[in-house]
Amino acid sequence: MSLPQAPVQRIVRLLSWVRRAEFLVFLPAITLAGFWMGGERVLLLLALGLPLLFAVTGASSTSSAAHPHGGEDGPTIGRALAALDAMLPTLQDSGRRTACLVIQFDDLEKLLDRHGRSAQAEVLARCEDRIRGALRMGDLVAHLQGGSFAVVLAPVRRLDLETLVQLSVRLQEAVTAPISLGAAQIYVTCSVGFCIGGRSPEATGRSLLDAAQIAADEAARHGPGAIRAFSAEMTRKQASRDAMRDQIEAALENGQIRPHFQPQISTDTGEISGFEALARWHHPDRGCLAPSEFLPAVEGGDLTDRLGEVMLFHALTALTDWDRKGLRVPTISVNFSASELRNPRLPERLKWELDRFDLTPDRLTIEILETVIASSENDMVVSNIAALAALGCGVDLDDFGTGHASITTIRRFAVRRLKIDRSFVTKVDQDREQQKLVSAIVSLAERLGLETLAEGVETAAEHAMLSQLGCGHVQGYGLARPMPLDETTDWITRHASRQDRIPRIGLRSR
């Protein structure tokens, strides 16, 4: 026989309150009042009953603690969804409202990289305590996958957009206070999305939670520390992003996404020093799409590693094709993302791929964004790059000058060549300040024993000035646009026969 819903909810709230530390404050008063009102019999009942009550509620707490970061199908989120499903049908007539909030931590992966999994778990546990402390009794907190939390608010009379924004700010303030972990002070931020009951697509607990999750995803995209309320437009955007992810996944599988190749030229000899593999999507309806049109969707859809595999395969295939045709291309450069560099099996995989294509490691150059190494304290990233350098692969630091990498960091990551960002190259033949910046970078590289390559070279005059300033290699539309593999053979042949491969020094500068 099941109990009526209202008494069950009261019992649940009572058990929840008994587990709180505040209950211990009132325990002596409860015991004394029981003795005054009922004598020794009540006192005996309290003496036997309270330990039993603690044992029952404590077992429940232990069960929850055993799975502190369980998935969203675990008992905690199940209880929250059940509470919502029980509440929602009764709210229309009562004049009360509920809401669901989803709290997502910004840069949780970076916390894992810097401090490890146990520290991440401890930080999440403390943040959960703070979140609970900022809520009322009766509000529920549930774990979601990926270290985020869902909050289900107990029904109240007044609940509007302003109230939810204020509550979101209060939860953010509770989380952002520094957390002491050993000798370290850790700072975390969070983004919050919410949906008020009655505004989700369906009047179910799952629909309300999903709406809050969509709002939280939107907040995270505009974070850190953003707050978003659910709207129907977000659902349409989410569906569009999901459809894009499915299209990209299919494009990777059927070969629509593959590299175009842009040559890199030595300023000393005019010869080809290598090619860089740059992703292009040969879309059946929209034509050839540049990376800016699909890379954000690749990164947001967790397809970065798969894209890396495709690019590496085609790049090594291109090298073997040029070798077979007797065309001299010393190296191929491939960009590696931060997630790929965190993979402990990366050196082993690259070695296997090089052996598979019968290529020596010095034929492959690993391109790494300066922002990746400037912000990375992950020992695995450092270890992987060192292992690749020890294997014999070249390491290029891409977009140099934009990511605040220190000299110590450059040496630590065994960088071989600095790729000077295009922002320093534009108008370098005319702008004295640009010339000073490039000259400083080249001088630094020479003293560190590193090579240099300037990106984004658009004109012959820029090419000539960079050569005059001592930059060793150049790359850009002024030399050649990225081209499909089948067009590279003719380009390489034509370039080898050109008489003006080496720029004329002494072009205009002022």
Task: Tally the beta strands.
Answer: 16
- List the total number of helices: 19
CATH domain fold name of the largest domain: TIM Barrel
- Report on the biggest sheet: 8 strands, mixed, barrel
- As a whole number of angstroms, the C-alpha radius of gyration is 30 Å
The percent range for strand residues is 15-25%
CATH superfamily of the largest domain: EAL domain
The structural class is alpha/beta
Mean pLDDT: 81
What is the helix fraction of residues, given as a range? 40-55%
Distance between the termini: 92 Å
The domain tally reads 3
What is the global morphology? elongated
Instruction: Give me the side-by-side strand order of the main sheet.
Output: 8-9-11-12-13-14-15-16
Return residue spans where pLDDT drops below 50 for at least 5 consecutive residues: 1-25, 56-75
Question: Regarding CATH, which class of the largest domain?
Answer: Alpha Beta
Q: What is the architecture of the largest domain at the second tier of CATH? A: Alpha-Beta Barrel
Write up what this structure looks like.
It is a single chain. The chain is an alpha/beta fold and 510 residues long. It folds into 3 domains: 5-65, no CATH class; 75-230, Reverse transcriptase/Diguanylate cyclase domain (Alpha-Beta Plaits, 2-Layer Sandwich), CATH 3.30.70; 255-497, EAL domain (TIM Barrel, Alpha-Beta Barrel), CATH 3.20.20.450. 53% of the residues lie in helices and 16% in strands. It has 19 helices and 16 strands. It has helices at residues 5-18, 23-65, 75-94, 108-115, 117-133, 161-176, 205-221, 232-254, 295-300, 304-324, 338-341, 346-356, 370-375, 379-391, 407-412, 422-425, 432-448, 460-468, 485-497, and strands at residues 99-105, 140-143, 149-152, 179-181, 184-186, 190-196, 227-229, 257-266, 272-283, 287-289, 332-335, 364-369, 394-400, 417-420, 451-454, 473-474. The strands form 3 sheets. An 8-stranded mixed beta barrel has the order 8-9-11-12-13-14-15-16, surrounded by 6 helices. A 5-stranded mixed sheet has the order 2-3-1-6-7, sandwiched between helices. A two-stranded antiparallel sheet has the order 4-5. Helix 4 crosses helix 5 (117-133). It is elongated. The relative contact order is 0.07. Mean pLDDT is 81; it is low at 1-25 and 56-75.
